[in-house]
Each structure stands twice: as C-alpha cells, then as structure tokens.
Amino acid sequence: MNMEFNKNEDVMKLSLSQLRQRFDQVALGGGKKAIEKQREKNKLTARERIEYLRDQDKPFTEIGAFAGWEMYADQGGCPSGGTVAGLGYISGRQCVIVANDQTVKAGAWFPITGKKNLRMQEIAMENNLPVVYLVDSAGVFLPMQDEIFPDKEHFGRIFRNNARMSAMGIPQIAAVMGSCVAGGAYLPIMSDETLMVEGNGSIFLAGPYLVKAAIGEEVDSETLGGAVTHTAISGIADYKFDTEQECLDQVKKIIGKLGHHSQAAGFDRIAPAEPKKPATELYGIIPSDATRPYDMLDVIERLVDDSEFEQFKQDYGKTILCGYARIDGWAVGIVANQRKMVKSKKGEMQMGGVIYNDSSDKAARFIMNCNQKKIPLVFLQDVTGFMVGSRSEQAGIIKDGAKMVNAVANSVVPKITIVVGNSYGAGNYAMCGKAYDPRFIYAWPGAKIAVMGGDQAAKTLLQIQVAGMKAKGKEVSAEEEQQLLNAIKGRYDQQTTPYYAAARLWVDGIIDPLQTRRVISEGLTAANHQPYMPPFNTGVIQV
Questions:
Q1: How far apart are the C-alpha atoms of 269 and 330, rounded to whole Å?
Q2: Residue 33 in contact with residue 118, Cβ under 8 Å?
C-alpha cells in the first residue's frame, strides 16, 4: 500500500474514534446522575431495556442515535432525541423497537422526538414489521409545544399511525414502565396489548396536580392511573408485573406467538459469501480529501459477495456505475457514482462524481430494469451534482436528469442509500436522497450533504454579502473579505457534516464502512416482510 492509502486509513480511523466517543456520549442520555435516579426506582435505562428484550445472537441496528445532536442547547439538549430505537429481533422475529429515555427531560417529547418516532412507525409500515413500544414519558415538552403539538407531522400523527397500523394488521405491543401522560396515554391503549409495571407504570390523561387544579380532587398517581387501577378497575391494561424484567419476558412471549406471514416480498437470496477483497481496505480507499478522485469499483468489490459485480452498460455513461451483485446473499442492483476521471468513446473527458447526460440516461434505464425484475436497489452516493455549462444544457442535461429523477421517484422496489462521500445539490435527489423515500439511508463518517460544496457556496455567499456592503457605500478590504469568507465557510462546513444530517434525521445513522454490508442486509430482511408492491409506472418521461 502507498503513502496516500495509509494517510486515508489514518484519517478514517480518527473519524471512527470520534464517532465512538460521540456515541458513548449520547448513549448516556441525560447523564450519570439521571441514570442513578432510575436505579433508585428499580428502573432500567432505555438501552438496558432493549438489551434485555432483544435476541443477543442477532444484530440490533440502531436508528437515529445522533438525533438532536447539538440541537436545543438552550433547553439542555436532547440526546438521541430522547428515544432509543432501531431494528432488533425478539423471540426470533425482526421488530421495530422504540424506547423512551426517561433520563432525558423525563422522556418528554421535543420536536426531534416526534420526528424520530414517526420515522420508526414509517419503517414499521413500509416493511410490515411488529412494533414494541417501551413507554416512559412525561409527554410533550411544554416550552416547545407549538413545534410538536398541532401540525400534520407532530405528536398527534403518532396516534393516527397507531390506528393505521392496526388496520394494516401490524402488531403493536406497549410496555408501560413509567409515566404515560396526557395525549401520550393514547399510544399504549391504541396498541394491541398493554403491559404495566406496578409501582412505576402509570397511564392518565391528567396527572394528580392537573386533576387538583381542574376539579379540586386530590388523588395519588397509583390510584389515578397505576397498574392495579388499569388492570383491575378500568380494564385499559392487560397485564401487570412486579418488575421490568417480568414485563419484558411477557413481551418476548407475546412476540414469540405471533403468526407468520404466508407471503413475503420474494426478493432473491442465496447463501452469503464474504467479499474476496478485504473490506478493511475501505478505510484507505476513500480519500481524506473529498475533492480527490478514486475508483468506486474498488469500494463495490469490498462490499459485495465474492467481490463479483456484473456491470450494466459498462462502456456507456461511465460516471455512474450500474450493475448486479449480491450483498450478504441478497440480489441487488447497485447505482454508484464513479469518482475517477473517465473518457467517453466520443473522446470527451468526464469528471468523477458528476452526472452527465449519458450517465443519467443509463441509470434511469437500469433503475427501470431492476423494478421490472423485482431486484432491490442500493445507491452509493459520492456526487457533486449534474454537469453544467452551455454544452450540457444544449444537450438536454435537465431533460436527462429529470428522466433519472423520475425513475428514482417512481421506483417501487426497496431502495437503500449509503452516502459514502459528497451528496450535493440535485445529485442528492437523483441518487435517492432522503426526499426520495429510501427504506433506509446511512452515511459514512466523511459524508457531506449540502446544496453545493463548501468552497463554492462560501464564495457565492461572500460575493452577495460584499456586493450588499459596497452598495451601502462601504469599502471592503482584501483582509476583511478573507475574514468574511472564513466565517461563512466555517458556518457552511458545519452544516454539511454527517452529524448535522443525522441530528435532523436526514440520514438514519452514521456507520463504520465495515457495517455497510450488515445494515444493507438487515434493511433487505426488513423489506422482504412487506409482500405488497404497487405496480411500477413512471408517468411522462422527456425523450
């Protein structure tokens, strides 16, 4: 290996070390003192509950670990969006698991909490997976109620989804291990079965203080909405238990007895095979400098079974690689941005990471082929956008780009997106960014998501700002321009990081490149549970 490879590897390992440190930070939730308070009440943390509940011999794929990262500083932060969630196995069945983290503001719902919970319900509905809710929440975070309560994608949508999932035949189990207050009280009751832990679990529309204020009645929490009240008097809950462990054991039994689907999606899978080329070499292949070229084929061959990749239209539209492969045994179609400079048969030199007329035309056709063949799609993004300039415009780049976007938007097979490096502008859309409904979307530590690269954006913003200052009669020196440029670029670069994206759930998580095969395989396992697939239609396509 050369010096460049070693440098890339060192930078990637430093990024992964930072990723682990930051994960350890958010995994503490509200902090060690808050965790100790849980202990004093004989309560497990959200992560401990999931660990006890899930099958240890199968993977747990966390979703949204960095939700809320560096957001809500004035409110003390909201690590992981106050909720721990992901795909896990219970009694051998793949499930969506959602656990309120009581150590974070008593499990109160911030705006990002609502977005994360809705994302988990979306995953359950798209993939026909059972849901287990581990409830321990004080309800809406009142200082921000206007950002979480009334709108279509706010708190109330959760209960609408409860009802829709029930109608779809998706099992929902709620284990109430702490407070379940106000509107949140509907979640367990709209689930199929409700379990409660005596002494800690409570469900009520209004707590003791509000009841006192509203009607003058004095009543304690247990009498108002404890486990005995709801299992023996109101009939709202179905089971009560002395300990959390007993409660979770019952959840395992319930999930273990669920009936099996007579149908699956039917995506093809054979015995898995490891890549012949070492996956660890991914660390050195991806440049530490995002502007430097590399061969995306080297990445693909370290992700796919036996390192076998059957290219589609190999000699045409070379800035996008399309082809068939297997990942952990699953048959997939791969659409990936080629990052090295290539030369077309017409003699045109084409820049890596840029989508040209021929590459967008090829990708659109390949995506349609995969839909025809019922083959899931994997997008590997490292894209700086579509080609610009008079030559491309006159050749109809917008028309050809629209063709690709149309194919991606109307694709009905599952799509899984990995943001390997850059994800800029309309390239993000064409390569199945968040707005195009990938079943799952993950980012590598070096990913950058923005309208355009930091240098171009900062210079554009600088020109606008300086022009405005000069219009007001202010002279701007070269030194002042440089200071402004540095400040603008610093702000912009911060907004392009994978942590900024993960905080807002533009991606489901930031992963070690070595986890890529696993998260894709788990995503396809989930997708295979959904037998319904609408017909594939593209609508009107420009020719």
A1: 4
A2: no
Q: Looking at the DSSP assignment, which residues form a beta bridge with residue 418?
A: 380, 442
What does the H/E/C string look like for 216-240?
A: CCCCCHHHHHEHHHHHHHCCCCCEE
Phi-psi region of 313 (alpha: psi -120 to 50; beta: other; left: phi over 0): left
Partners of 311 in the beta sheet? 323
Cα 499 to Cα 446: distance, rounded to the nearest angstrom: 10
pLDDT value for 1: 57
Distance in angstroms (rounded) separating the CA atoms of residues 330 and 527 = 11
Tell me the three state secondary structure of residue 63: coil
DSSP lists the bridge partners of residue 326 as 331
Give tens-digit pLDDT for 441-487. 999 999 999 877 767 766 777 777 777 777 787 877 778 777 777 77
For 89, phi then psi, to 5°, come to: -110, 135
Which residue shows structure tokens 């430093």? 14
Question: Tokens in use for 421?
Answer: 């490096």
Question: Kindly report the CA angle at 512 between 10 and 62, in degrees rounded to 5?
Answer: 150
Helix H or strand E segment including 334? strand 330-337
- Rounded Cα distance between 334 and 413, Å, is 13
Q: Are 88 and 54 in contact (CB under 8 A)?
A: yes
CA-based max dimension of the chain: 85
User: Per the structure block, which two tokens stand in for 455?
Assistant: 């240098």
Is the pTM above the cut of 0.85? yes
- Environment class of 183 (CB within 10 Å of its CB; exposed 0-12, middle 13-18, buried 19+): middle
Owner of token pair 């503001």 = 105
Amino acid found at 356: Y
What pLDDT does residue 457 have?
Answer: 67
72-88 pLDDT, tens digit each: 999 999 999 999 999 99
Q: Which of 454, 361, 368 is nearest to 407 (CA)?
A: 368
Which structure tokens are listed for 524? Answer: 């396809």
